[in-house]
Design goal:
255 residues, alpha/beta, Rossmann fold, six-stranded mixed beta sheet, four-stranded antiparallel beta sheet, 8 helices, 10 strands, 24% strand, globular, binds adenosine-5'-triphosphate, binds magnesium ion
Amino acid sequence: MTQTATAPPTFLERLTGRRHAVRTSKDVVVLHGVTKRYPNGRVALRDVDLVVPEGDFVFLVGPSGAGKSTLMRLLIRDELASKGHVVVDGNDLSHLRRSDVPRIRRKIGVVFQDFKLLPRKTVRENVAFALEVTGTKRALVGPAVDRVLALVGLTGQANQLPNQLSGGEQQRTAIARALVHDPRLIIADEPTGNLDPVISWELIQLLLRINELGVTILMATHDAEVVTALRKRVVALEDGRVIRDETGATYHQAD
Ligand SMILES: Nc1ncnc2c1ncn2[C@@H]1O[C@H](COP(=O)(O)OP(=O)(O)OP(=O)(O)O)[C@@H](O)[C@H]1O
Ligand SMILES: [Mg+2]
C-alpha cells in the first residue's frame, strides 16, 4: 500500500511548507463519562464528557484541585480512568496494549510549569534526546532538531545549558522537545506559571503559531488575562465536573 499520496502532512511538513495543511474533522481527544477516583478515595473527575477536534485551542480552567492536571494525566496514560472512556486519536487508552503505549505517547507533546529539562544537556541535546530514546535514526535527528529550534527561536542558544537560559527560553526548549515528535496534540499544564507576564505572552504567541500549523492545544491555566484576551474555547472544571464548555469565551462566566 502506498501511503505517501494520501497520508495527512506531518507537523514538520506543514512547518516547512512542503505540503499544504489539511484539516480533517477527526477528534483528537474524546472523554466519555470519565470518573477518576484515586486510590485514597479522592474523586478528582466526575462523569466528564469532552470532545476536542483536531486544530482546536482549548483553555482548561478552574480552581486549584478542580481536576485539570488529573485530566491531562489521563490523556498521557499516567493514570487510568476509574470509569468511562479516554480516547486519544482514536485509541481507547483503557484497551491499549502495553506495547502500544509509547506510540500513543508520541502523539502528545507535554509541557509542564517547571520545564523538566535535563540539567547536564544543552538545549540541542535536550531536544535530540527525546528522539534518540525512541530509536529515531541518527541522520534524521539533527535536521528535525534544527527545525523545531528555529520555530521556537532558539537556534542561537542551541549549545547552552538550561541554567544558562532565561525562564522563557527554558520553557521554549521544553516546547521544542514536545514538538520534535510531530505530535497531534500539545498538552500544557500551567506552562506560564513560572514566567513573568511579558514572557508569558511571548510563550502564548508561540503556542498560537504552533496551533495555526494544525497542532491541537489543550492548556491548563490560572491566567485570567490571557484566557479572556484570546477568546478561545474555555472548558471550566469545578470539583471534578465540567461546569462550562464555551467557544470564544472569557475566563469567568459571562452573565
Ligand atoms: N495522586 C493523587 N492521589 C490522591 N489524590 C490526588 C492525586 N493527585 C491529585 N489528587 C487530588 O485530586 C484533585 C484534583 O487534583 P488536580 O491536581 O487534578 O487539580 P488541578 O485542577 O490541577 O489543581 P491546580 O490548579 O492546583 O494545579 C485534588 O483534590 C487533589 O488533591
Ligand atoms: Mg494542576
